[in-house]
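Changelog-adjacent note: as of this version, every example in the card shows the full chain rather than a window. The one below runs 127 residues end to end.
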Amino acid sequence: MTGAADIAVARVGDAAEAGRARLLVDRLWPRGVARATLGHDAWLREIAPSDALRQWFGHDPARWNEFRRRYRAELDANSDAVARALDWCRRGPVVLLFAARDRQHNQAVVLQDYLRERLERYATDHA
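Full-length structure tokens:
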């Protein structure tokens, strides 16, 4: 299994990092990005926040803490999508791609922390 540090986040327009699987974690396809040019390995749209949560958040930093709490609750209830993401993480280094302009307040940041915690818990339980 790879370490927790092997999960990175990047905007869809950032240069690809060699040796990392590129996983798009947005519910909607990024505007202005052709599917053939993204260079992604998988689109995990089902792991993205629900439409209702995404619209409520609206990338408002004032709603960040509540967004994190609600999105983590959605992840807890979405075991199939989380398992799929964890499978990618266990195979090797990944980068979670997002389209939001804000690099600090987006679902990929929350998902990165969530997946790292799950991997660490698994490693501890199976040590």
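Structural remarks: The chain is about 45% helix and 15% strand.
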